[in-house]
Design goal:
heterodimer, A: mainly alpha, 6 helices, 0% strand
Chain lengths: 191, 185
């Protein structure tokens, strides 16, 4: 099941990045339509389009995550991860789990992709602030998008703004993880 | 819609059985490969049950809007699907959508606005059991036999309540409108 050598996940990474941008853009379009719409006139097509793009982007991102997870297992022993490979997928769909587990899995992929510290145990390696920032923006965007009631225009706009920031951070995270995994030699001699 | 409901009930029952099996196998063995196989089967059945249930929900939502104007629903129809997927939101949105479907399926109060109709305690009980089952399956010690058993027991209770709920709502939606003496609203 595992990889024997690192296979950089460039294709899946690019697909996920593009789709995540389209998903963020669709949130912004809905926010604009909410401002423009007459009261109680939901922009139905935009909602359904946004749902479809979010699902597609989510699948592409999970595919990228599972590929980079297998790559990180080549670089660092997989037994050091806090969650087994199954949770790359399950962590996203189980209520409560998806508040935290995808973040923890992503941090461990990041740390497991670190070639500069072969003697340091995975859980002792530094975590990525970029990943933390991405997760905070993503979760805040979800919280605001979930608020029901008459203030949907305000919350929806804030949520879309945070969604765009999260997409930006996510694109950068995808590139950095791919770069770390593609590096043939340790990036730094010391550390 | 009746057959989607039946399929959802059957698959939800199988998913609950798979949870019980996952719990039982943890008491019986420490073999990681055996446990992983049982958990993967459970995962596949859960996804199938979830998809079928959501299709039933969207059909029920569409039909309830024929009985009661859709204007009173707290979430647009797209959230029948999106509500299950969005982190944080999926702790409460599906329950709110389901309550509104329940209230919208009520033919006995055409003159009462949807928001003012009583909510279903059956829906509330189902959701509490479902969420508690999910919560107990992600505790730090969730892989222990005791917690998997507690989570599975709550899952079985949630499955029974979901079955009752699906039967009740489907019955309300498919019943013939009674010749009401009241003037058309």
């Amino acid at each position: 099941m595992g990889y024997e050598a690192v296979r950089p996940a460039r294709g899946a990474g690019t697909a996920a990045t593009v789709l995540i941008w389209v998903a963020a853009a669709s949130e912004a379009v809905i926010a604009v339509q909410l401002w423009a719409a007459v009261e109680g006139d939901p922009a139905t097509f935009a909602w359904w389009f946004s749902l479809a793009v979010h699902v597609t982007a989510g699948i592409a991102f999970v595919v990228w995550m599972s590929q980079t997870r297998l790559n990180s297992d080549v670089i660092t022993s997989k037994h050091q991860h806090r969650f087994t490979n199954m949770w790359v997928f399950v962590g996203w769909i189980l209520p409560f789990a998806n508040l935290y587990i995808p973040y923890a899995v992503m941090q461990d992929i990041w740390r497991g992709s670190d070639r500069a510290r072969p003697q340091v145990a995975l859980r002792q390696r530094p975590q990525s602030q970029l990943i933390t920032a991405w997760w905070i923006c993503f979760m805040a965007s979800n919280v605001l998008a979930s608020v029901p009631g008459p203030d949907v225009v305000t919350w929806g706009t804030l949520s879309a703004g945070l969604g765009v920031v999260a997409a930006m951070l996510c694109g950068r995270m995808i590139r950095q993880v791919n770069d770390r995994q593609a590096a043939e030699q340790p990036l730094t001699a010391g550390a | 819609m009746r057959w989607t409901g039946v399929a959802a009930v059957v698959l939800i029952g199988l998913a609950a059985a798979a949870e019980m099996q996952s719990a039982a196998v943890r008491w019986a063995t420490d073999d990681v490969a055996v446990i992983a196989t049982v958990v993967q089967i459970s995962l596949v059945v859960h996804v199938a049950a979830g998809l079928t249930f959501v299709v039933w929900m969207s059909q029920a939502r569409a039909r309830s809007e024929l009985i009661t104007s859709g204007g009173g629903h707290r979430f647009p129809a797209v959230w029948v699907f999106g509500g299950w997927l969005i982190p944080f939101g999926n702790l409460f949105i599906p329950q709110m959508v389901m309550q509104d479907i329940w209230r919208g399926s009520d033919r006995s109060r055409p003159a009462v606005e949807l928001e003012k109709r009583p909510k279903s305690r059956l829906v509330t009980a189902w959701w509490l059991c479902f969420v508690a089952s999910a919560a107990t399956s992600v505790l730090p010690d969730a892989e222990a036999p005791l917690w998997t058993t507690i989570s599975a027991a709550l899952g079985v209770a949630a499955a029974v309540l979901a079955g009752l709920m699906i039967g009740k709502v489907t019955g309300m939606l498919l019943s013939e409108p009674t010749a009401s003496p009241a003037p058309a609203a």
